[in-house]
Amino acid sequence: MRISVIGCGYLGAVHAASMAELGHEVIGIDVDPGKIEALSAGKAPFFEPGLGDILTSSMKSGRLRFSTDIADAKGAQVHFVAVGTPQKRGENAADLTYVDAAVNGLLPHLNEGDLIVGKSTVPVGTAARLAEVVAASGTGATLAWNPEFLREGFAVKDTISPDRLVYGVPAGAAGERAKDQLDEVYAAAIANETPVVVTDYATAELVKVSANAFLATKISFINAMAEIAEVAGADVTSLADAIGYDARIGRRFLNAGVGFGGGCLPKDIRAFAARAEELGRGESVRFLLEVDAINMRRRDRMVDMVVESLGGQVYQKKVAVLGLAFKPDSDDVRDSPALDVAVRLNGLGARVIATDPEAIPNSIRLHPQLGFATDTHDALHDADIVVLVTEWKDYRALDPVEVGELVRDKVIIDGRNVLDPVAWRAAGWTYRGMGRP
Ligand code: UDX
């Protein structure tokens, strides 16, 4: 199929390249000339495993092009809207400026029978409102909502082999046709028996936000247990293992630590709470504000643990911060607990030397006041305390004996509970996890 993808960020760039990889003819469009220049040269503008490979192969095949001009979407049959919906400045609600601009920008370039497919995460009710805009344009185009569930770090795999597809389509013949068009786009996944849920706009929009709300709640639940474990002298990791054996609960997303961050979960739960208030049902998801509060408290806790471990004297102490990205295998530092902890410690007068395999450039842009080291050993050198905040494979594999020879004081706070306390203590370290005795 001929496909356009409006917005080439973490979502759109991966979607465009993956659709081309599946054999479609794709044009990716973004207003940022820097991004388009990089993508046109076959370079991923951010770190995402596997993206570089499929970009190169699709560009070579001639099936993938990029442009800054939305008029180049003309001729595509399916137009994906994959622009950002960030949190509004000073408010919990989502900012829909980019979604509105993308849909309105597409209208003059549509042909009869074209399908606009929203992928961005939006407050429930947005698709119905945009469908009216599309209908009023007289273009004969249809709108569908097809939320995206990709995880950064696994984005290519999640796009090419999703665990489910959700189509929000209008009722009647237009909806049938939209479903057929989407089935053609996702023919490869459907042939592999990917479940498809065909539903209305509102349900499709809610599926996405409720999935993220559930995941965030699961993480904050275990972090709340970590808070209790801390005062009761229990171990939240064993607790998670034990409750996780119950198939109804499951062990995934029960890793306690410094909490969740990123471009999705934090802003999506806030936007959901704000939208529920607008709909007069604020009380139904008000617990999400508690989920958010628990999550933010973990960062306070982490900073407190560092201060405590340094005997209350943080000023001029060298703190080696391992990790800046909001999760491993990503260079994304949006709302990253790791970067936040580094900034807070720096604000207390510590000499922070932070390191990360991929996220240093993005961190420098936001917080040039921090100290950075690209080499893990340089970050660890002479450290008074080591703080692990993003569980990159390299950090999980650190050898406590070797690291012990680099630092000034063998004190480590494991903000992701990924190190083996027995091995670290045996090597003479003071090891502290989060929610562990
Ligand atoms: C999330 C959703 O998983 C995805 O389906 C949606 O499309 C976008 O938002 P992502 O932001 O890539 O994906 O990250 P995810 O893997 O969900 O992790 C989010 C945050 O939660 C990270 O900061 C991670 O470190 C943290 N986390 C995750 C925990 O603290 N504990 C866990 O057990 C799991």
Low-pLDDT stretches are none
CATH fold descriptor of the largest domain: Rossmann fold
Number of strands: 14
Output the radius of gyration. Answer: 23 Å
User: Mind telling me the CATH class of the largest domain?
Assistant: Alpha Beta
Helix fraction by DSSP (H/I, runs of at least 4): 40-55%
Give average pLDDT, whole number: 97
Number of helices: 18
Associated small molecules: uridine-5'-diphosphate-xylopyranose
In the sheet with the most strands, the strands line up as 3-2-1-4-5-6
Distance between the termini: 57 Å
Q: Count the domains.
A: 2
What structural class results from the helix and strand content?
alpha/beta
Describe the main β-sheet briefly: 6 strands, parallel
Q: Beta-sheet strand percentage?
A: 5-15%
Fourth-level CATH superfamily of the largest domain: NAD(P)-binding Rossmann-like Domain
Q: What global shape is seen? A: globular
CATH architecture of the largest domain: 3-Layer(aba) Sandwich
Describe the structure.
The structure is a single chain. The protein has 437 residues and is of the alpha/beta class. It folds into two domains: 2-199, 3-Layer(aba) Sandwich (Rossmann fold), CATH 3.40.50; 206-437, Rossmann fold, CATH 3.40.50.720. It has helices spanning 12-21, 33-40, 51-61, 97-106, 126-136, 155-160, 173-185, 187-191, 201-232, 236-244, 265-278, 287-309, 337-347, 360-366, 376-380, 393-396, 400-406, 421-426, and strands spanning 2-6, 25-29, 64-67, 78-81, 115-118, 142-145, 165-168, 196-199, 318-322, 351-355, 371-372, 385-388, 411-414, 430-433. A six-stranded parallel beta sheet has the order 3-2-1-4-5-6, with helices on both faces. The chain has a six-stranded parallel beta sheet with strand order 11-10-9-12-13-14. A two-stranded parallel ribbon has the order 7-8. Helix 9 (201-232) packs across helix 11. Uridine-5'-diphosphate-xylopyranose binds next to helix 9.
